[in-house]
Structures are given as C-alpha cells and as structure tokens.
Design brief:
Distance between the termini: 49 Å
Number of strands: 13
Strand content: 35-45%
Number of helices: 2
Structural class: mainly beta
CATH architecture of the largest domain: Beta Barrel
CATH class of the largest domain: Mainly Beta
Oligomer: single chain
Largest sheet: 6 strands, mixed
CATH topology of the largest domain: Elongation Factor Tu (Ef-tu), domain 3
Length: 167
C-alpha cells in the first residue's frame, strides 16, 4: 500500500493476557481507535485495534488475534499506519509531517538551500530538519510562520527566512 501515514506505535505488552501498550501520535490521542484497521509500514499486516483504557504513556489496547503476552511483546516497536484518505482534512495553516518531508527549501531570495528531511516535535513545537545543498551539517529550524512563512505543497516547496548568523 502506498500513501500510508504513521499515527501510532505498539510499545509492548501490557499485562499477561495479550493486551498491548499503544502510543498515539494523533492530535486527539483517542482518535487512533477510530480509523478502522491499521497497518504495518509495508501495508502487509493489518491490525484491528480496540482501546481498553488509558495507561501511562498511552493506551491499553486489544488487537484482534493477539491473546498472549508473548504475542504482544513480539509486536513491540511496530509502527501503525493508516491510509491517508482516512485522515481528516486540515486547515490551511496545518500540515501532516509526512507532507513536509521531501519538500525543497528555498530562502527568501529564491535560492534553494536544501530539502526537508525530517520533522521533530519534542514538546515545544515542530522543528524542521533541512539537509542543505551547500552545508555539511543539517539545519534545524523551528516550524513557525516567522521562520517558515510559506509552505506550498502543490509546488513542493517551503520558503525559509533563515535567522541572521551571529559572531
């Protein structure tokens, strides 16, 4: 399957009867249970998930066909994906991380500076990683309208207002 978006991950077994601890990457964490069957990264394996309760760091969940702690532990680290067409549309000023990765990055003068290679969020806001064409190390920039004033998904580009370098 193509066009899959990662919306969660299995963190391991929870208890001894096949329940798993599930991490949700959805803006509304409980939504992970509402998207229907989820898939592994290749789209080959399907997971029918039922959330059972909130637990530290996520949710307890049952997965159809998983009945033992050993089966649940074997799924630890499995990322969970959903076909893009099942996700809600976003307002004009919001983007799925998967849409940003791969976009060409240009400075405000129109010169290409690289490509967006990753988007991180460690709790204080999104950070774009740009692999520059003329630098050896990646640029890490806050994904704010001040630094990234323009995102054009149709054209496959972002405009970046690079901060002034200080001495």
């Amino acid at each position: 399957m193509s066009d899959l978006i990662c919306i969660g991950a299995i963190a391991g077994a929870f208890g001894v009867s096949g329940e798993v601890r599930l991490k949700s990457f959805c803006s509304e964490p409980t939504d992970i249970g509402a998207y229907g069957p989820l898939f592994d990264e290749g789209g080959e394996r399907e997971f029918q998930i039922t959330l059972t309760r909130p637990v530290a760091g996520g949710f307890g969940a049952r997965i159809k066909g998983i009945a033992t702690k050993e089966q649940a532990d074997a799924l630890r680290g499995t990322s969970l994906f959903v076909p893009r067409d099942r996700l809600p549309s976003l307002p004009d000023d919001e983007f799925y991380h998967a849409d940003l990765i791969g976009l060409s990055a240009f400075d405000t003068g129109g010169a290409q500076i690289g490509k967006v290679t990753a988007v991180y969020n460690h709790g204080a806001g999104d950070i774009l990683e740009i692999s520059p064409t003329g630098h050896k190390s990646a640029l890490l920039l806050p994904f704010t309208t001040a630094i990234v004033p323009n995102v054009d998904l149709a054209a496959g580009r972002v405009v970046v207002d690079l901060p002034e370098e200080s001495d």
